[in-house]
Amino acid sequence: MSYPRKLHVLIVEDDSDAVEAYRVSFKTFKEKGFQLLDPCFARSFSDAKTQLDRGELFHVVILDMNLPIENRSAAVEGLVPGEQLLELIAKRDDHPVPVLLVVSGKLNLVQPLGNMQKRLDNDFWYGRLVNKGPEQDREIELGLTEALRYSDVGIHIADSGNEWFPTLSPREEDLLRRCVLTQGSCLGLDLRWWNAENGPSVSHPNPAAGPTKVLMGRFLFDDGLGASLPSFFKFEPANNGRLVFHDARILAQKLPHVKVYQANESRLRGLLVTQSVTNDGWPVPLNEYLRKAPKEVCPRMGSVINNIVKQLNLLGSPVEEEMPVGSVLWGYLNRDIIENVWKSFETKQLLESGIDNPLIVFDALKKSAVKHWANRLNCSHGDLNATNIAIDLTQPDNPQPYIFDAAGIRADLEFRDLATLEVTSILFNSGGSDHDILALVKPFYDKEFLPKPINAKLLSGATGVGQNICSVILAIRSQINVKQHSAYALLVFDAALRQLFGLAYQPNKIKTPIHACFLAAWTAKWLTLIAPRLFHSDKSA
To answer: Domain count of the chain?
Structure first.
């Protein structure tokens, strides 16, 4: 969204004398050098609503609160028409209004005034309550100046190359402009896409909650001061945004590299700005790092995963607990939905593979009376996937990972985050030119927790990302104590089911949906081999 710099103004006013006074004032503003069109006038509630509903762009709206419902009618008692218009303007997400001035001779009827001003501050870049009278022209001039400042903010988004991302909505750009204007001597933003997704997630199971959009960028300063350190800009639905803001602040208290910069929201969208985890340069997502040459990635993956585990350990201390095995599964998993997804992929390919429906194991776990000992953390990340790990490549021989962008922070089992990382690293990459990934990872779900080295002949013909993902899984599982093998296998199965469940709404980041079926089935079988005691109701595991 980029409005022209020449200002468009809507004045909602029913009094003819006041309208003529506005015409004189705006002629004076033009003579002072303000770039603006002649203002549009609306003389009633219905007239103003018609103009707003047409989708006309307005930088500034000047609103009288005491209005008639129709043109040529008398004003109604009270401020209800004006309050209803204010609400309509605040919700105008396709054409956000940056500046709203409530200019009225009856502000004494607004009770309490503080609440009204708070609404203006939340819903607009610049909103003010102005008493009609000799000072109103000065207040309007300030509003026009702020509208020009808003229009002057530059937002550049780099081309995303081969990756496809959604556009930013006008309201999202409005939140970015407001963010820029709160910074000192800041002219704009230089942005590039980091990630985008829709649909249900671990922390936000409502399938209609999306989309989530994440960009990385720098603030651009005035007076030749250059650019800032990189920051992350995350957009969420407003109802999710409050949870994300909460989680980000907790993460900032737990990890020294996480710094919350700003949290702001409109009626429907929220924006969270956090400073980049790196000191300089542009970090890359772990997912992008996995696309580098195996000779560069594989030897360093053990160190990368070890560093990630250390950061996860900073979130909370493990305490061993005994719990029913069925309680380990994600609480939002819906059996009927998973079954419908599974049936929708009952292709010849699945049937000929001879794999069993993973819901057989799901049902057995739900019915099991076994209680299992496992480590529980009082705080977990909640959504650890390869796009929520930034890799600092300042020293290519020593890549430094940083976890960020938590979602659903809560007490949870120690290795759920790592299990999520294992499963999503496969499914978010398996497909397209990387069709061999699924075959490469199959040995990890046969009989052993740490399988023997993968067949060299198979690796020689594999894509680089496939080899790198194998190194991720090996590095993760090398971190798991033998006593925790059963718990980890259970959590991997749960993570695979969550991805299968998500396909009921849309593929999300999964490249090849049928691969989620294979992985869910393989992890189910693997779990029964690694942890058979979880299914024996007569003993504790």
So the answer is: 3
